[in-house]
Design brief:
The protein is α/β, with parallel strands linked by helices. 45% of the residues lie in helices and 10% in strands. It folds into 3 domains: 165 residues, Rossmann fold, CATH 3.40.50; 67 residues, Helicase, Ruva Protein, domain 3, CATH 1.10.8; 56 residues. The protein is globular.
Length: 328
């Protein structure tokens, strides 16, 4: 089983909660920004619990069509509809005795929320076209990057469903709050990249480590892993420096080589401070823009006077998902 790596107090506190929750057989809500490792956290709960030998079934709620929500979750009996020539179990059936992980739970429509709420009230469900109700023994772990309390306040998510999902709660810290975990993870991912492509071992240059530490990481651990892989593949020598980082991620452009900072010394280098300020401004501006445009990229492009394609690239760069801003 993969575990969440990190030595910072922030991630160790979160992992301590995950281990404690493993022994409490009730619903868990995991919140965190895109790329913080919410599914990995859910797996850590599952595989350290008494359910470890039963299935872990991940579900992307945003990928389930509204018209098929009941069929996907609860399955159907033979003859339930025209093409139902045989009974088919749903995701709840597959997760019996194990864990059903509902990722992006905030993306459920009103109908989907009602369907899930009804199921969570007594763990009973009926397959589409079925007769007698069935009982589920699956544990529910839900995750979101939207902040369900804000979604409830905005009228986009049912408060009663929020209460059901939020029996136990954990927030995963973003990478920018995890001190030098960036460097630990960067070294780990560099070793993993070498193993993945069957290439030679490489090391980070001091200039690259300084740049990695100064970066804001809007895409969190997932962004770090991708950038490390690109930097490794794009490098030739035994060490990876700022040049390889700049080729892997344009946001590192302008970063210069500099001596390693002493512990607890603030990074006041102009290039690093400028890079951080630009990233912070862009993310804050895009968040406000998408809130004003209710998640409509075309409308946001008109409001900001930018091309829709360019705006889409900026949203992707900062890991901002537009669905969280759309009215329900």
């Amino acid at each position: 089983m993969s575990i969440m790596l990190g030595q910072s107090r922030a991630i160790q506190s979160a992992r301590a909660l995950l281990r404690r929750y493993a022994g409490c057989d009730v619903q868990v809500l995991i919140e965190g920004e895109t790329g913080t490792g919410k599914e990995l956290a859910a797996r850590e709960i599952h595989y350290t619990s008494a359910r470890r030998d039963r299935p872990f079934v991940p579900v992307n709620c945003g990928a389930i069509p509204d018209s098929l929500i009941e069929n996907e979750l609860f399955g159907h009996d033979r003859g339930a509809f025209t093409d139902a020539k045989a009974a088919q179990p749903g995701l709840v059936d597959h997760a019996q005795g194990g864990t059903l992980f509902l990722d992006e739970v905030d993306s459920l429509s009103d109908k989907g929320q009602v369907t899930l709420l009804r199921f969570l009230q007594d763990n009973q469900y009926r397959p589409v076209g079925g007769g007698a109700p069935r009982i589920s023994d699956a544990r529910i772990i839900a995750a979101t990057n939207a902040g369900l309390e804000r979604q409830v306040a905005a009228g986009r998510f049912r408060r009663d469903l929020h209460y059901r999902l939020n029996a136990l709660y954990v927030r995963l810290p973003p990478l920018r709050e995890r001190d030098d975990d960036v460097l630990l993870l960067a070294r780990h991912f560099l070793e993993a990249a070498a193993a993945r492509v069957g290439g030679p071992a490489r090391q980070w240059g001091d200039d690259a480590l300084s740049a990695l530490r100064a970066y804001a990481w809007p895409g969190n651990v997932r962004e770090l892993e991708n950038i490390v892989l690109r930097a490794y593949v794009g490098g030739d020598g035994p060490r990876i420096g700022v040049a390889e980082l700049q080729a892997a991620e344009p946001a590192f452009a302008g970063t210069e080589s500099a001596p390693r900072r002493r512990a607890n010394e603030p990074d006041l280098r102009f290039s690093a401070a400028k890079l951080h300020a630009i990233r912070t401004f862009e993310r804050d501006y895009l968040t406000r823009l998408m809130e004003q445009a209710s998640g409509n990229i075309s409308a946001a492009a008109r409001l900001s006077g930018t091309e829709r394609r360019q705006l889409g690239k900026l949203l992707l760069k900062h890991g901002i998902e537009t669905k969280q801003f759309r009215p329900r």
